[in-house]
Amino acid sequence: MLRQGIYFGSLLAPNHPRRCSSLPPLLWRQRSSSIVAMVATTDSSKIVPVLSISEVTERLKSHSHDAQKTYRAMYSSLIDGITTDPAAMVIPMDDHMVHRGHGVFDTATIADGYLYELDAHLDRFHKSAAAAKIQPPFDRATMREILIQTVASSGCKLGSLRYWLSAGPGGFGLSSSECTMSTLYAVVLSLPAIPDPDMGVTVITASTPMKHPQFATMKNVNYLPNALSKLEAESQGAFAAIWLDDEGFVAEGPNVNVAFISKSRELLVPEFDKILSGCTARRTVALAPKLVESGVLSAVKVTKISPEQAKDCPEMMLIGSSLPITPVVKWDGQVIGNGEAGPATIALRNLVVDDILNGPSAVRIPVPYTGEA
Asked: Nearest to residue 110, comparing CAs of 372, 369, 339?
């Protein structure tokens, strides 16, 4: 038997017909000794139990106690329901999003009991799904209602709604043709207050290659390059690593857009043709003309920016849903401006925060929380 030949091969004599004849006797004896040592060191008295579903649930509950305060609710189209128990917030191992990365996702901020820019994020979500060749299980209106109901069930009024569309479960093959149905998952996370705008961060230039534009412009679950660039930044004591595109122009961070204020007070934002079209970045560009009117900015430009031009700017910022705007005070060890949050960056941040808390109904959706009139 194959297993027996491999496992007990070290017990066979050098001249045994089942011995690996391609190995010389000395090397065979060395290999045999290694296998015996491996068997000895891995031999254990540990017995892994076979658990019932109720026992699995109890064990999951014991590991999810601390998550209760953070993970507030989850919807799964597999069960077509919402749970508020973190122990039940699971997805199948044979879901293609898990073992093949065939899925897309998006997010929306929850602030003061409102969902901010849900429709803009949903628009991008559907574009990502189409690019990933995943047909959603529901139409857009139904999906939107499911997401709102999930937030309502969570009771969370300050946090994040994150949702995923997967090719679905069905097997461990490569092709999604084996999937029984696409699946929608949504999780509500309770998050701390919006970060202090005066706390500037440092960044580095990423050495981890950025994704090809076909995938960078699609918000898919393949975030290994993003995760590695974040780890690269953290290993150097920085907050984020900034990618440069194939032409050497400033692109984006691992999960944030970047922007700059030039010496002539122009807001400069990198073009979105090779990077993710950030909803908060686009909203910032839409709101920024108010600061042109007030004289804080002279112009708003979405354009190509070289690293040399960028580092010469007196202000730099990161833009993202959870930030929403955070000043950058140092890049690759070079101080940006005077090393403090610049006035235009702070003004832009205040503009976006006010939009999150007091913006028009087009960007703020009230959540009908359970038990509230």
From this structure: 369
Active-site choice (61, 69, 127, 219): 219
219 is catalytic: yes
Give residue-wise pLDDT tens across range 89-126: 999 999 999 999 999 999 999 999 999 999 999 999 99
Whole-number pLDDT of residue 196: 65
Residues 134-182 have pLDDT tens digits of: 999 999 999 999 999 999 999 999 999 999 999 999 999 999 999 999 9
Q: Can you tell me which residue has the tokens 């953290």?
A: 234
End-to-end Cα spacing for the chain: 70
The C-alpha angle with vertex 231 and arms to 345 and 191, in degrees rounded to 5, equals: 55
Give which of 238, 237, 242, 248 is closest to 208, Cα–Cα: 242
Query: What CA–CA distance (Å, rounded) separates 242 from 30?
Result: 49
More confident residue, 323 or 33: 323
